[in-house]
Amino acid sequence: MLTLILGWVLAIKPTASTMPYPATATSVAELAPEANPEAVAIALGAMRCAQASGVGAGAHRLALIDYSRPSTEPRLWVFDLATNRLLYQEIVAHGRGSGENLAKVFSNASGSHASSLGLFLTRDTYLGRNGYSLRMEGLEPGTNDHALARALVIHGAAYVNPALARQQGRIGRSHGCPAVRSAIARPLIDALKGGQYVFSYYPDATWLGASPYLKCSGGRAMTAALGAP
User: Fold this and answer.
1) Which domains does the chain possess?
2) Ranges of residues in the chain whose predicted pLDDT is under 70
3) N or C, where is the chain less crowded by C-beta within 10 Å?
């Protein structure tokens, strides 16, 4: 299955406007050995697909959140694709409506307090009740396009704490935001602000088959393979 996914990613032909960076799915995955290489490949492919349609064409940074992992483990990686560097590997919160230590439920609905899947483009920063925060625009209709209205933002939180995870078996949960450790919130946000990409992953066959950013060249074959038993 990984071969099919990597083949799909590589099938999107790079141009100056669609891939202003030298990174490949293989080289990016090698930067984060603890990350699932399939999730890395899908995230990079979704970013390239969006850039091929003119969305965020100048972006060169990608944050991958793998919600198939427990909250007690690192599951957020921030890559600089222009320099082929891993900038951050971090724990990250999911919404209380998504589950306990493992996120299992995802929603686009206001009031759900659940995390949303899919591809996001970062917007501006602001100071709010959770401190320095980064707005994200959800790019997938029906999956995450209510992110701005729901105020799903990246922010720091004291409950994103490894010590708390050891005490209670999970880190704290948000109202749907991918909250990070307070100590690294500001530099991480600054690395991602202003038109970079965030991709929230979970091996959900329905979403993978419906996402518009997994339908570029080879996308149908890739999602069919993911949905196969």
Assistant:
1) 2-227 (2.40.440.10)
2) 1-22, 217-229
3) C
